[in-house]
Amino acid sequence: xxxxxxxxxxxxxxxxxxxxxxxxxxxxxxxxxxxGEIKVLLVQRDVEPFNGHWALIGDLVEPDKNLEEAANxxxxxxxxxxxxxxxxxxxxxxxxxxxxxxxVTVAYFSLVNSMNYQPIASSWAKSxxxxxxxxxxxLAFDHYTILCKGIETLKNEVRHKPTGFELLPKKFTLLExxxxxxxxxxxxxxxxxxxKKIQEMNILRPLNEFKLNVSHRPAKLFEFDEKxxxxxxxxxxxxxx
Length: 241
Prior knowledge:
Nucleoside Triphosphate Pyrophosphohydrolase, 11 strands, 30% strand
């Protein structure tokens, strides 16, 4: 029989207080894009454990903070960045994932144009940098596993939703759009097929403007028509690349 101070689990009687002795943390996988490269924002730790190692942006959740608030606070406290949209994507709870005790972490991911966000290390972070996902240093804790899951989530997200447009300037060429999706998904598109498919979606607004200061023939500029996309989405349209 259960008592106020214990909880029956299988054939063990475990004191209830034992269920309230491990920590909860947040880890933020912030992806950025610039000149054909997908990067992730990492901080270099200036505290133990893993002093000097690179890590995702993360910290323990304060007892009086909800998860969304904690995620934004962690990002701002360690890098100075704020008001970035983040989406919760997975929870990691291996018993031995933290050397100081049991810590479950809730992971968030975000997509930004890295040119628009210049991180400044603070709190316990020694430095903060955008690092190419194909040239990663050794990461602290299980952050490489978290990052790999984040990359998997990113690829699925941009393949089925127009999330990738967040990484482009407001006005862009079709070539810039193609290079972005090639970097995000890790493979090459046939140029004519890509342009035909994206234009048939009818979610781009052509502009009477051209890309200037280029060595080749100036290319036409486009904008993502989010209002049009939302209307089509309600009608059953599915973004698919």
